[in-house]
Amino acid sequence: QTSSLKNHDTDAPIDFDAARIEVRDKENQALLSGDVKIRQGNMTLDADSVKIFYSRPVRGDPSVRRLDAQGNVRLVSPSERATGRYGVYDVTEKQITLIGDVVLNQGQSQLRGQRLAIDLDSGRSTLDGASGTATPGKPAAGGRVSGRFVVPPRNPSK
Amino acid sequence: MARASRPDGLGRDGLGHLRARMTAAALETRRRAALPGGRHDVVVAVLKVALPLLALGLLATIVIWPLTSAREFSFLLSKDKVAMAKDRLRLDNAIYRGATAKGQPFVIRAGGAVQRSSAVPIVEMSNLAATLQMDDGPARVTAPTGRYDMDRDRLNIAGPVRVDGEAGYSLDSQDVTVSLIDRTVRTDLPVKGTIPLGSFRADRLRADISGKQLVLEGRVHLRINRRSAKAAR
Fold first, then answer.
1. pLDDT tens digits, one per residue of B114-138
2. Domain with B159 in it: what CATH number?
3. Which of B211, B220, B228 minimises the CB distance to A10?
4. Which of B150, B133, B139 is nearest to B212 (CA)?
């Protein structure tokens, strides 16, 4: 089931709410801490702390490259909710990755694993069991993926 | 045209005859007037006495008057009546030069600067611009109004402040303190503004003037609405 995040507009404005934001322009980073809430389009990403990496062209405005979220990371989109210990939103690669005790709820089905990758272009989300060792796309051996699938009742209206 | 004879017998030569008779009469009156005891004598007698007196009087006034009037014209410059300028020091296009602890110079230009009283080392300024030499180039702090605290080399600004430096940013708050000595910008009141990354609001702000390090605290909201440049891929 493809995620509603398909073709998610990564260029849309990103809103951050936090208790504290520290901008370190020298390192082109911004550290957000204290119940951080990130909203972009119809997607929200909450976490205890987030680090923004941005690039600063010589002229013109800086642009966000990547967001690293840490601690109680929770991704909510119209089609699914996922939680994990860490999260990486790679804006330029248009991919969101949750790592560590990942729980993915899509519709009634719930999947657990170590690593969830959602491709914001295709909307495809892949969940694999191994934590950290699996390279994206190639399921790692050994990690167990447990899942409880509930087949949504076929109703003619859909 | 026949000459009509006129009852008084005046003819063409009558005019001359008339003038003669008139002058005889006038002569008559002048001769009468010249008689002693006439009106003219009285006038002359009066004038004979009045004119010298008038001259003397005039002389007296000329001599005495300046003396008397001198007293009347002298006046005391009383301090409280003169219009006191309430500001002790009013400058236009004021320029203050100073140097920080590390010896880096700073200059504050202001459209207008007023120091209320010498006891209070606070100068109220309008459209001020402070320029500081930072290690990585000049930084400029501009604000429509502000107060410069000379003792502590600090600017207290109520309202918008624009800081142009390596990473320029602007903010607006009730009371922003710009310390020229330790090059920091600080406010403990709700503040909103923009940084290169986007626009923000927060309850408190601490930043260094060059904008290298900026800390926002208290219900912070940051909105990044830059289109992520494709080139950055």
1. 888 878 888 899 989 998 887 777 8
2. 2.60.450.10
3. B228
4. B139
